[in-house]
Amino acid sequence: MSTTILWADDEIDLLKPHIIFLENKGYKVIPAVSGNEAIQILDNEDVDIIFLDENMPGLSGIETLKHIKTVHPHTPVVMITKSEEEHIMEDAIGANIADYLIKPVKPNQILLCLKKNIENNKIVNEKSTMGYQQAFRDISLKISDSMTLAEWEMLYKELVYWELELDKIEDSGVGEMLADQKTEADLQFAKFVIKNYEDWLHGRSSEKPLFSHTILKEKLFPDLQEGKTAFLFVVDNLRYDQWKTILPYILPYYRLDDETLFYSILPTATHYARNAMFAGLMPSEIAKKYPQYWLNENDEGGKNQFEQPLLEEYLKRYGKSSKISFSKILNMDFGRKTLEGFYKVMQNQLNVVVFNFVDMLSHARTDVELIRELANDERSYRHVTATWFSNSVMLEMIKFLSEKKVPIYITTDHGTIKIEKPIKIVGDRETNTNLRYKVGKNLDCKSRDVYEVRRPEDIFLPKENMTASYVFTTGNNFLAYPNNYNQYVNMYKDTFQHGGISLEEMCIPFVKLLPK
Questions:
Q1: Which of 56, 364, 429, 473 could form a disulfide with 477, with the two C-beta atoms 3.0–4.6 Å apart?
Q2: Range list of H helices, 348-412
């Protein structure tokens, strides 16, 4: 189907060679000698793009443009003018033009303009598809459980890069190829983690990642200075791909100084990972050193209610000021009240703001049908996160802190993965309800696609009783009891969960941003 161009210029006869050039390229060109004629044509013809001369007698190009944008706001308009005066360009750009060309225009300029504004999606689709297809074999050859930490980090970043690139196109076939490749990567990554996790924690490996309980000491504490303030934003459940999706909204105000991938501890769940982050200790160490601040799985009460005192103790141990502010944002109203109070906390060395939106989105997607439809796949899950962020009080906070020239840090406690394959497990009635990991007595799981830890103390997890053990799922699996098995599986299949071993859950961002 050919592209139809409306070209309005009072000297249209002089442009006949250009029109012939475009028609030979397969374009249909409708000429107009004035703004009024162009408007009349638009009332009767469907056009794909408009070339509009700025300096026409009668209705000027700018006046014609304003009328067109009122009636046909989505039709791209290219302004063409002899003048390079700044105010004309500003008027045209302010009216939301698609492009701006200076006379005399050359045929190749026009062709490039058309490709950019009309064929851009097709070109992007072709280039993205071809690019990933070329990368597919290379990525497949890389995936193995013998890769190093640095190689896994680069591979995961490459997979996320292609996810975001393929989000721009409609080719489901190539998207399915990437999804399958990610599934294979997750399985091999799980083998890598199971083989090395205990050695990493005990310092028996020549290389080890930054973990939840070491990230603040390594990446935040060295930057804290007397007389200066910094803000740490912790967005619960924020995956690396979601971080890359919200980054463009931040870049007008901050420049990215450092981006680090670190590993959430197991279980990749808020109770364990975020407490470990704020305490600078593994869970069993928190339970031993600060028993008043640790609650086990079956204890009543919020499992993350002591994060502020744990962080204050952590700062004291490293000789930092423990005068901090600590806020958890659960809704917009409290977020705005927190923002209004920023003036009062600027003298603090550190201010922490925890946002639970992405975590609530993940849980709401399980429980609320509307949310499940809005975030029904990986692409829409990222899109909903970006939509939230672009309208959030967190972005308002970032804008405010940018004006005050305050450095900020953004991180999370763990990510999530879309679960698909059920694994049967048997446990007693005291076993926890998480779908990605179980802790309890007499756990029985026959699958080889799990990481079973019979001695929790070996990976620094609390042991509630003598026979307690942990079972972690790998890849996109989830744990289900034999009772009401089909109903349970249908309820939770294709939801986003956390607690197990996958790139999405474990490899998470810690970023430092400096104000522009």
A1: 473
A2: 357-367, 369-374, 378-390, 393-403
Mapping DSSP onto H, E and C, the string for 444-460 reads ECCCCCEEEECCHHHHC
CA distance 61 to 55: 6
Six token digits for residue 113: 């303009």
Which residues have CB under 8 Å from 21's CB, separation 6+? 107, 110
With a cut of 90, say whether residue 234 has pLDDT above it: yes
Q: Are 468 and 439 in contact, with CB atoms under 8 Å apart?
A: yes
Quote the CA–CA distance of 308 and 137 in Å, as a whole number.
Answer: 47
What is the distance between the alpha carbons of residues 424 and 419, in angstroms, rounded to a whole number? 14
Q: Tokens 């407490």 identify what position? A: 275
Sheet holding 99-102: strands in order across?
28-32, 4-8, 49-53, 77-81, 99-102
Q: Name the amino acid, one letter, at 102.
A: I
The C-alpha atoms of residue 316 and residue 312 are separated, in whole angstroms, by 6
**Residue 192 CA from chain centroid, whole number:** 25
Cβ-based neighbours of 328, under 8 Å, separated by 6 or more? 354, 356
What is the spatial distance between Cα 252 and Cα 385, in angstroms, rounded to a whole number? 19
- In the predicted structure, residue 109 carries a pLDDT above the cut 70: yes
| Residue 450: C-alpha distances to residues 186, 281, 437, 464, 502 (Å) | 13, 25, 9, 21, 12
Ramachandran quadrant class, 221 (left: phi over 0; alpha: psi -120 to 50; beta: rest): alpha
The token duo for 498 is 């956390």
Question: The tokens of 203 are what?
Answer: 């310092």
**Which DSSP string corresponds to 112-159?**
HHHHHHTSHHHHHHHHHHHHHHHHHHHHHHH--TT--HHHHHHHHHHH
Task: Encode pLDDT of 76-93 as tens digits.
Answer: 898 888 766 555 555 555
Name the more confident of 291 and 125. Answer: 291
Contact 178, 163 (CB under 8 A): yes
Dihedrals phi, psi of 132, to nearest 5 degrees: -70, -40
For residue 506, the model assigns a pLDDT of 98
Element containing residue 279 per DSSP (H, E): helix 270-279
In three-state secondary structure terms, 44 is helix
- Side-chain-side CA neighbours of 210 within 13 Å: the count stands at 18
